[in-house]
Amino acid sequence: MGKILSMNQAIERFVNDGDCVALGTALEPLIPFSAGHEIIRQGKRDLTLIGPISDILFDQMVGAGCVSKMVMAWAGNVIMGVGYSLRRAVEKGIPRGIEIEDLTNFSICLALNAGAMGIPFFPTKTLLGTDMFQSNSRIKEMVCPYTGERLALVPALVPDVAIIHAQRADEEGNTHLWGSIGVSKEACLASDRVIVSVEEIVEREVIVSDPNRTLIPGFLVSGVVHEPWGAHPSAVQGYYDRDHEHYMRYHKETRTEKGFARWLDQWILSVQDRSKYIDKIGVGELQRFRVARSHEAMPVEYGY
Amino acid sequence: MGKILSMNQAIERFVNDGDCVALGTALEPLIPFSAGHEIIRQGKRDLTLIGPISDILFDQMVGAGCVSKMVMAWAGNVIMGVGYSLRRAVEKGIPRGIEIEDLTNFSICLALNAGAMGIPFFPTKTLLGTDMFQSNSRIKEMVCPYTGERLALVPALVPDVAIIHAQRADEEGNTHLWGSIGVSKEACLASDRVIVSVEEIVEREVIVSDPNRTLIPGFLVSGVVHEPWGAHPSAVQGYYDRDHEHYMRYHKETRTEKGFARWLDQWILSVQDRSKYIDKIGVGELQRFRVARSHEAMPVEYGY
Amino acid sequence: MTDYTKSELMVVAGAREIKDGELVFVGMRLPLLAFQLAKATHAPNAQGVFENGVLRDRPAGKPLFTMGDAPCIEGAVWATTMLDIMTLLQKGRVDLGFIGGAEIDRYGNLNTTYIGGRERAEVRLPGSGGGSDIASLAGRLVIVMNHERRRFVERVSYITSPGYGEGGGWRERTGLKGGGPVAVITTLGVLRFDPETKEMFLDSLHPGASLGEVKDVTGWPLRVGAELRETPPPTRKELEIIRKYDPNGFWTNR
Amino acid sequence: MTDYTKSELMVVAGAREIKDGELVFVGMRLPLLAFQLAKATHAPNAQGVFENGVLRDRPAGKPLFTMGDAPCIEGAVWATTMLDIMTLLQKGRVDLGFIGGAEIDRYGNLNTTYIGGRERAEVRLPGSGGGSDIASLAGRLVIVMNHERRRFVERVSYITSPGYGEGGGWRERTGLKGGGPVAVITTLGVLRFDPETKEMFLDSLHPGASLGEVKDVTGWPLRVGAELRETPPPTRKELEIIRKYDPNGFWTNR
Predict the structure, then answer these.
(1) How close D53 gets to chain B, by Cα (Å)?
(2) CATH code, domain with B188
(3) Active site annotation includes C154
(4) Which residues of D are catalytic?
(5) Which residue range(s) make up the domain with A18?
(6) How does pLDDT run across A201-258, given as a tens digit for each residue?
(7) pLDDT by residue (tens digit) across B97-135?
(8) Residue ranges per domain, chain D?
(9) What is the value of pTM for the model shown?
(10) Per residue in B17-52, is it b (16+ CB within 10 Å) or e — as a string?
């Protein structure tokens, strides 16, 4: 019971200025847009964002001035290319300069997995020969004591907080997530705190009916937020598909600093919470993204 | 189509004398007893067995003289303690001496995971201060280049073949496994070849209805064997529970070399295949282990 | 007074080591019963992890022989890979672990691999399993074993699961993360470790056991705690709970 | 002759790089279309992996904008973690990978991070994503990009995704596992690499493109293959298939 919070409460309680925050760990789907928007509204500052492919949520948080550093493989607008806020920040220091630690999709997985596993680094065959060694001073090289080959070392990432959006959780935070998983499990296991927002809060019985489906157990979860449409405009498998046009409009409308300010006000600052956001888009409009062609998983028997 | 084989064919085709074979990777359940018995019947020799907790299948294979080496964390009879064949082999060289590379449950996971990931070793905080460094010359130590702490290094294990038993697969070898997973995924991803025996061969549609449930995709699977009761006396979640008394009898009856020879003849050598094994136990008798209290996973929607 | 077996007393002593809300690396046999007992009494919010990949917050619906039995997975909150569970240990998330042992020494080092050392190998035992990992990485460790002369030795011939090595400071020098053993629950008493020297001492005697008997079957001059207590015997309610989870006395030798 | 866009021709050229039965690291945009086209024509048994954790052996039921769109997961044979998929690459199980790039040099090194180098950073691009991993670890690499003077440079200012570094032997010295680039499919032609020197050369010209034009927009003295061919144009059937998967021409600029 004690873990069920509003998004406002969850962000207030578990995200502090200066925190390292892992977000968007399922890649293009299940991006916790609602949580990111609340972070912007609460004016959190000096965050380090951690995520593989962040899509436009990172761009929005950078543009809003919440971010001092990013540890990432790719940042922008997945279907449109660049994110203009990110470019303004790096190239012109608008609204502030940010530091970037460049990694690749694989090495960011390894860094979070090292954090999840409680080891200081991960050896790998990726990164070798790249200039990531220039733009990320934490990567090292070693000679393998077994094979003599060259290995890159990726140091562990231990975020202060991971925020994920998932399909369903119970009141203790035991969470079922399906579809695109990305690096969500590793991010949650690595982090000191985890915030989960979900489409549905379900009875414990739903979760324990399928323990292999559990992404993370509740004992690792600090706060659970019931947030239908919490990932819009990204997709939630089995609930709604991606709103591609939203990303296209974002690209077009945030090309300039002024355009971004307008967008920020219209879609984030002037919107009190996710339920108001839904009202603004229109429930009818959103129904377009709902499941039209059902495809249920075949039965699985756990009995004895 | 081409991947569906009898157990006899699968073992003949994909297990060679001298191979490293990973078995029993789901721990106490889903042990591929049928495959192990066929290996014994075909008289495979000089195998290296790899597995965390092998239960009595490793003991049987050692007693039958198939094994020259074991890489393992624990070997014996899980509910009864020691395995007498293993003791006779190590202590007296009966039927032959075997080499043992001692690891722990965690470090054997790491070794297989390194193999799965294509890296030469895994750094870890386990093993430090143990005499495993004496009895496994492949473990090394290093000082962490990030933290200065002591780390143990576990070298990768790359089995020639992994053999798993699972609930269901399609004709291409796309495999659903649920319940106790153990280190099965890592073992399959690490190995050059994979043999899967299953309770049921299902249509492709069953597998793709729940792609998060897939343990390994068919492109990694060399042979698929339809082998109902293939894990008896171990358990298969949702199909049958463990036959504990079988393990108790094995313990009692294989205390002596002669007793083991009798058991070997009675339950393995004189039994042509798994269907004959089922006949021998009696289909009626086996029904005792069937699911009496159903507990199905709650529905999951993948549609769009 | 209710009749009970030594194993039942050991289960009760084990249960008392578990605090409410803790994450416990359970294992099978007596520790599993101890965990189930603790949950049914003073630690309802304790959660148990099993090395095959399972996390449970409620007892299984049927007595278990192995952690992989179908009832141990049915109704679990998480059934993941062995690697995920073991890394919870390495990450420092496991408060308490239980293990058994064949041979133990003055500093709580355990041998479950080779009796007589590896080269001479008088007896080959099953090996570490997850025991060594739990001993190395759990926040606190509780050891459960029979108190016999051949088992309590001055120095184990092979360290499978590290205790305090050669004494105070050894774990830190060795780079071990977990806290090390806090209790050894035997058939005769409960032993603990000196905070400085890390040497084992007798903290409580089980009802019916004598100090002389304990010293006789301990292979080094055993120290005794400042206040040697008697281990509180199981209550009727505790026994009822234990017998519910071990109805035929398979693990508790009833 | 059927009308087609340059992008459609590039898709066709990409599809031809895929052999039947291969495991292909697909990515999005033109490479995804190339993969779908290959499967529908000469490579029905090719399978595609996507870095979010998905393995598909059949096309998705709907055109995709991102690999995480619900139709890309629905009907997949495997939807696992990103880590599992990326380790397939590192393990050497991926035959072929596709990537794009903003800037490329004579030895096939790609920059998608900082134009002008990191310190001066005239332009910050989105970064590697999985591109660098694919370039480093896939068995063969195919690069798809626009042929423009500002993109084809003597030496990239930042190596995001390694090609052949400084030429022959560099990948081996650097410890890279994958085979490196085999083709660069541009808006003007298909370029390949000398087996010894690993320098890029022009292997075929797209219909309508001239050698002079290609040389003009290439920032180093470009070598030309022994037999400069014309890239075969798309067939009607190929175009039909491409347009089925990109019905509005979002990716192929129709």
Answers:
(1) 9
(2) 3.40.1080.10
(3) no
(4) 51
(5) 7-103+158-289
(6) 999 999 999 999 999 999 999 999 999 999 999 999 999 999 999 999 999 999 999 9
(7) 999 999 999 999 999 999 999 999 999 999 999 999 988
(8) 6-245
(9) 0.97
(10) eebbbbbbbbbbbbbbbbbbbbbbbeebeebbbbbb
